[in-house]
Amino acid sequence: MSAQTLNEEQSRAIHRVLDKLKKDTDAGTALVTDSGGNILAYVADEDDESLQTVAALVAGSFSATRELASLIGEQEFHAIFHQGEKTSIFIRCIASTFLLLVVLGPETTEGLVRLYSEKVAKQLLPLLVETRRETGPLSLEIDNDADVF
Amino acid sequence: MSFVNLQKKEINFKIVYYGPPLCGKTTNLEYLHSAIPDDSKGKMTMLSTQEDRTLYFDFLPLRSNAIKGFVSRFQLYTVPGQPIYNQTRRIVLTGVDGLVFVADSQWSEMEHNAESFQNLQDNLNTYKRSLHSIPYVLQFNKRDLPDIAPTEYMDFMLNQGEEKAPCFESIATEGEGVQDTLNAVCKMVIAQFVKENVGSRAATAAKGE
């Protein structure tokens, strides 16, 4: 099973879409992850390491709700909203494989984020599908004798 | 499925610790979290019940420079061992790149080891994957306890694939064998990644396909 590869051009294109979403909605974080919790791109005030955990939890949470959906005869829930007192999380599924996550504070509203996320999901779809195509050979240098950790 | 970000020069791998209830999966991750330097690890997250049993999964993100010019991110997950959480175990296996099967060495747990190992194979089958194509190692844990099975017996019981998986004896509560297990599976995962993504792509390019 070959790896999913995101090149520099794809990364910049996805980043541009997320950046505009963040500005349009006044959100704190806009992030795209795959269903395994791998972050493809993000625009955020948070640091990178905590977002790794956020992506893993969101991917796990979405998979669990997919099982829940199947129990009531749905293939999946297209969107999930986790409502907090001040900060909330909106998750929009894209093509059953990718997840768009928006962290929103009191400066914005769920409705606005939902509205823009619909548009952004359509813009992201062709870019995300492109990352699943085979790319050229990777050139890697590995020290086989050294421990990884 | 491993993920390569060429802009950030990062490669992500997913390693899952699998095994019967209370075999020491979470203890493995807790030891690694305490032993690995701060600049190579992120926050450990545990989704547990009030009784400290794993409900969903434990998650520990690690970083290494094993591949020159890239940051290799190894995302370690455990699964809940209890039989009722099989749906959750199956979900956690999504896109797995490498596996550690943690077996409990006590004689009383041999049946649970065998059931869990079969459950692992059944759950991989639902993704049309198998242990033939995923790097994995076996860890025989709790070697400090009385009334434990010989490693030869456990090897005979669990290591019946065409290619023998590497086995490690461990006492996870003391950290013995834990880092060796992790290093072995990480090296196997990297070797598999190179085989599938460097070799095959280079070969394809060479043929002009």
Short description:
With 149 residues, chain A is of the alpha+beta class. Chain A is built from 3 helices and 7 strands; from the N terminus they run E-H-E-E-H-E-E-E-H-E.
What Rg of chain A is obtained from the alpha carbons, in whole angstroms? Answer: 17 Å
N→C terminal distance of chain B = 23 Å
> What value does the Rg of chain B take, in angstroms?
17 Å
Spatial arrangement of strands, main beta sheet of chain A: 3-2-6-5-4
Structural class of chain A: alpha+beta
Shape of chain A: globular
Explained architecture:
The complex is a heterodimer of chains A (149) and B (209). With 149 residues, chain A is of the alpha+beta class. Chain A contains three helices and seven strands; from the N terminus they run βαββαβββαβ. Chain A has helices at 8-25, 48-71, 110-130; strands at residues 4-6, 29-34, 39-44, 79-82, 88-94, 98-104, 141-142. In chain A, α1 packs antiparallel against α3. The radius of gyration of chain A is 17 Å and the shape is globular. The two termini of chain A are 25 Å apart. By secondary structure, chain B is α/β, with parallel strands linked by helices. Helices cover 34% and strands 25% of the residues of chain B. Chain B has five helices and nine strands, in the order ββαββββαβαβαβα. In chain B, α3 links the parallel β7 and β8. Chain B is globular, with a radius of gyration of 17 Å. The chains are: A alpha+beta (149), B alpha/beta (209). Chains A and B meet through β1, α1, α2 and β7 of A and β1, β2, β4, β5 and β6 of B. β1 (4-6) of chain A pairs parallel with β1 of chain B.
